[in-house]
Design a protein that fits this description.
Shape: globular
Distance between the termini: 44 Å
Structural class: alpha/beta
Helix content: 40-55%
Largest sheet: 7 strands, parallel
Number of helices: 8
CATH superfamily: NAD(P)-binding Rossmann-like Domain
CATH class: Alpha Beta
Number of strands: 7
Length: about 260
Amino acid sequence: MIALDLSGRRALVTGGSGGLGQAMAEMLAQAGAQVAVHYRTGRPAAEAVVQTITGRGGKAQSFAADLADPAAVETMMKDASAALGGLDILVNNAGLDGQRAPVGEDDPKHWQQVLAVDLMGPYYCARAILPHMVKSGRGVIINITSVHEFIPWEGYSAYASAKAGLSMFTKTLAQETADKGIRVVAVAPGAIQTPINETVWDNPNSLKDLDEKISMGRLGTPAEIASVVAFLASDLASYITGTTIAVDGGMLIYPEFRHGG
C-alpha cells in the first residue's frame, strides 16, 4: 500500500477558515501534518476548523494576519513557526476575485486590492517562510491560482492578471529554490462548489450554463482540490516543481469543441 504520510510536517494554510482553505487544512491534518490555520477576520470560523482537526486527534492552531501587510505576515510566520516548531509547507490559498467591472469602468483601488491579496500576499508569505525552509533544507510552497491563470474572465481583469502573475511567480521561485530542497507548485482549481459561489450553483439556469463549460459536466468539490494539495505537499510528489496542476474537470480542454470546430 502507498501511504500519503505528512507526519512530522508543519503546514500553514492561508485563508484556512472556510471554503477550499478549510478543506485543505483538514486534509493536511488528516495526513498527519500539524496545521496553522490563517485568517484575516472571523476568528470563530478559524477556531471551528482548529476544533474539527483537534477533535479528530490532529494538531492545529489559528493565526491572524492581513496578508497585504508584510509586517503582519512576518509576525504571523514567526509566531506560527515558534508554535509548531518550524514550517515545512505553505499553502497560499487566500484570495478574492474583486468587484466585476470592465477596464475603464472599474475603480483602480479595487484592482490594487485584488493584487495586494492575490499576488503580493503569496509573495510576502513565501518571502517570510523561505529562511525557515532553507535552514531545514526542505519545504513545499503551493500557490492556489485558478483556471483564470489561463482563461480570461470578462470584468475580472485584476483577478485573472493576479493569478497569471502568481503562476509565473511559482515558476520563478521554483527555479530559484530547486537546489535548496524546496519545491514550488501551483494548483489551478476550476469551478468548485463552495459557499463563495453559491449564487451560481444554487440557481438551476446558471448551474446548467457552468456545467456545460466543464468536460466532466459537474462542479468539483473542495475535497478534490484538497487531495491534490496534500499529494503535492508529500514526498509522493518529490519530483514535481515549477508547474501548475489544473484540477478543473476538463474545463481547459474546451468541451464545446467536443462536437466539431
